[in-house]
Specification:
Elements: H1 18-30, E1 34-38, H2 42-55, E2 59-63, E3 68-72, H3 74-81
């Protein structure tokens, strides 16, 4: 899949959109160790979502083939980095 290609007719790729703000508020309120988001467009991930999730303490990776993002909390990253997986 080419980078930047839009797969879906809807979009929340604007960091000022209500949907973007609601997603971040929900993630922040859950305080989860693992967060996965589906149907995340490449441009949205790199332009807005990655920095916003970094500010909440999450590190993630965007998977182009499955169009999803997986994030790990700082706590889980510290546990995983000391383990053999």
């Amino acid at each position: 899949m080419p980078k930047g290609r839009q797969l879906f007719s809807y979009s929340y790729s604007d960091s000022d959109s209500g949907r973007h703000k609601r997603i971040l508020a929900e993630v922040d309120s859950l305080d989860a160790d693992i967060v996965t988001l589906q149907e995340i467009e490449y441009d949205y991930y790199h332009k807005d979502l990655q920095a916003a999730m970094d500010s909440l303490g999450y590190a993630g990776v965007h998977h182009l083939r499955f169009v999803c993002v997986v994030y790990l909390s700082p706590t889980l990253r510290s546990i995983v980095s000391g383990s053999i997986i």
